[in-house]
Specification:
alpha/beta, about 20% strand
Length: about 375
């Protein structure tokens, strides 16, 4: 049985919701990740530093006892976002970026005229505060072409007008976006999700509708999927892990659940993401490059130190549950009809470790772990 050790990773794109559901979302994220960039599309959106601070404190109360998990907060870029807000965000120390929802997604209708944000973008460029961008054109554009249009027109103009603006192209899904990031300066990077690496639109639509795979940006063509795999497994520091894990209830009212007449966009992957990424990297003979993608490139872009912990993954098939409990409801798990090909075996922190059970949960804690030797090592 092959095993690999990686430094404790970070999720550079995560949704943890609010209220009772937040407790479960944080718990599942904290199982395997040391930190996470928290998305601000709450209700209402997190727009001010005070709102971000309140959300930050709420998330901390949901972190399980003894877990080592730090939320890295963001603001939502709105027309009312002033240069003063940007300066305050930079100075506060716990806000790590500002998110622009250019395209339609959960709790956001998107924007067509990006110039309304230029005063804020100018200040972000001065302050070195990254722009995290959901890169899709407006809703009247065909859903499969929105990202392509955005990366061919809108984003090049933003970068031309603000050449020193640091940009994270979130959850890219097309070969066009991959090429843009590759050709752009070193301060333009991208996150890639497990679902966009593992499947394409044929999986979602080709033999019956799979609501669990419906997300925004939507799954694209097979050639786009292959371009993402090449980018993610290349060892290029411009590409790093961001799950975009987004829990929605299995059943409920239209617009508020996955299985409804108007189902929600979002794939819930937090507890299985590392295993899914390992499957992708292993599938192309690049498992030795997973550590940098998951644990190094993202934190280095954000100027963060390495986490004080390790994850041991083993190549072992294991069945997963189709849905998990979130407070008083349930949330479907992405691609639960197939077994995982890799398993998180142990989660090791400074003074303790978690040992995975026979499926993929966490069963027990040891106080004096034996730290493995060598990141990325096989044994």
């Amino acid at each position: 049985m092959t095993q690999i050790v990686i430094p404790a990773p970070d999720d550079m794109h995560l949704h943890v919701r609010q209220g009772n559901r937040m407790v479960s979302a944080v718990r599942y994220a904290a199982m395997h990740f040391g930190r996470a960039i928290i998305m601000p599309n709450t209700m209402p959106h997190t727009v001010t530093v005070d709102q971000a601070r309140e959300y930050y404190e709420q998330i901390l109360t949901a972190v399980p006892q003894d877990a080592s998990f730090e939320p890295l907060m963001t603001l939502s870029l709105k027309p009312e976002t002033t240069p003063e807000i940007i300066r305050e965000a930079k100075a506060c120390g716990f806000i790590h970026g500002v998110k622009l929802y250019a395209g339609h997604t959960t709790n956001s209708a998107g924007f067509e005229d990006i110039t309304i944000f230029y005063s804020a973008l100018e200040e972000m460029e001065k302050q070195g505060l990254p722009l995290l961008i959901h890169g899709e054109a407006a809703a009247h554009i065909d859903v499969f072409d929105r990202e392509k249009v955005f990366y061919e027109s809108t984003l090049p103009q933003i970068k031309k007008d603000f050449p020193n603006l640091r940009i994270v192209c979130e959850h890219i899904t097309t070969s066009v976006a991959c090429q843009y990031v590759l050709d752009a300066p070193s301060d333009v990077v991208a996150t890639i999700t497990p679902q966009h690496l593992l499947v394409n639109r044929n999986y979602m639509l080709g033999s019956g509708l799979r609501p669990d795979a419906y997300c925004m940006p939507i799954l694209k063509r097979a050639e786009d999927q292959m371009a993402l795999v090449v980018a993610a497994t290349s060892g290029n520091p411009k590409f790093f892990l961001g799950t975009d894990s987004a829990p929605h209830p299995t059943f409920g009212d239209p617009g508020k659940a996955k299985y409804a007449s108007c189902g929600c966009a979002g794939a819930f992957t937090s507890p299985v993401a590392l295993a899914l990424y390992a499957e992708v990297f292993d599938g192309v003979g690049a498992i030795n490059k997973l550590a940098d993608f998951a644990s190094r490139f993202g934190r280095e872009f954000y100027g963060l130190p390495a986490n004080k912990g390790h994850i041991i993954l083993s190549r072992e098939e294991v069945a997963i549950e189709s849905q998990l409990t979130f407070g008083e409801t349930h949330v479907p798990v992405f691609r639960s009809e197939q077994p995982l090909k890799w398993k998180v075996e142990r989660v090791i922190w400074k003074d303790w470790e978690y040992i995975a059970d026979s499926s993929w949960g966490i069963s027990c804690k040891n106080q004096k772990p034996q730290i493995p030797k060598g990141d990325g090592a096989f044994y």
